[in-house]
Fold these 2 entries.
Entry 1:
Amino acid sequence: MSDATPNPVDPTPAHERENPEPHEQENFPSLLLLFLCSILVFVSALYLQRYSGNFDPLVYNEEVQGAGSAAAGSAAVVDPIAAGKRLFVNNCVTCHQANGQGLAGVYPPLAGSDWVNDGEEALVRILIHGMSGPVVVNGVTYNGAMPAFGPLGSNWKDDKIAHVLTYIRQEWGNKGAPVTKETVARIRAETAARTKAWTAPELAEFHPKK
């Protein structure tokens, strides 16, 4: 005879013995998390208000002063001297030096230069198409090459050429008048067919001696 005792029958109905159906619980974020999110939104709004520049695409243009100011929509004011100096430092300082003295026997000076001070007509032509061959500057002969900065298709537009020329004509004690973009545009149109650098003899008529 077996000594095993049969399991008693569980009187609980079968459907009540099943595990409860899983269900989604709503876990509300803590107050600390809500507070931190609010702070983040507030700080972001302050940052955009201060540094967005009213989302003006010109606000960080290196040649524009005052874009994105309180007077939104007003015309941007360009300081030709400041813009010209930046262009000079980035493109011309290696040859002509920060003090405008050039390199003796190699690159002519701009400071006190008769070519810089005596008139703008020759100067604009030189910057647009370059210059090659011997040239006398302040009584000293130089024989090198000045690269062209403004031929057709160049990204040196009329205002850039006007700015850098205005800067060198008013820096280092120079007393030349400002060069306007209208003057550059006129000369560029007059010389549009030119494809080579100028020489000193060709520029003689545009470079009056005092």
Entry 2:
Amino acid sequence: MPERLTQFTSRTMVLPQANIDTDQIIPARFLTTVTREGLGAMAFYDWRYDANGTPIADAALNTLDAAEHRVLIAGDNFACGSSREHAPWALLNYGFRAVVSTRIADIFSSNALKNGLLPIVVDEPTHARLLADPGGRVTIDLERCELSAGNEPTVKFAIDPFSRRCLIDGVDTMGWLLERLPAIEAFEARVT
């Protein structure tokens, strides 16, 4: 089950490159599993490790504390490319709870929401301010659909109501249905 997401404050991790595709997020050679466990170690693998598998000392993703940096500020057109559920799995397992960009691929957004990762699209001025403050603190309030950073104006973001409810409740689609099982069974008993 996904972790409940209502409101949290976190430092940011900034990856300003545009067009980061899903193969950069989780290289195809790591798509051999159907579970999430351990995928965080593979997130952005080719950016974090050399050809011998040795960590690159100055790679930004190797220097941060994943427990404190739970918001990824990404360049435009984040998670483009092929559809793979492993991409949000890897980001979540790494420690991210939200991704903020000016544009996020639709298929990735759908997969992210179904797995407990919040994709947030913001306007270019807000995005530029966030990119300019690596490690800055942001607060995400899913109840109000707001993002705030320091003394900057609070920014509203859009999310479909069902995905929002699932994230707040900490359930996926199946969990949401299972919570309603008694009502479903009662209805079936009445109509049969």
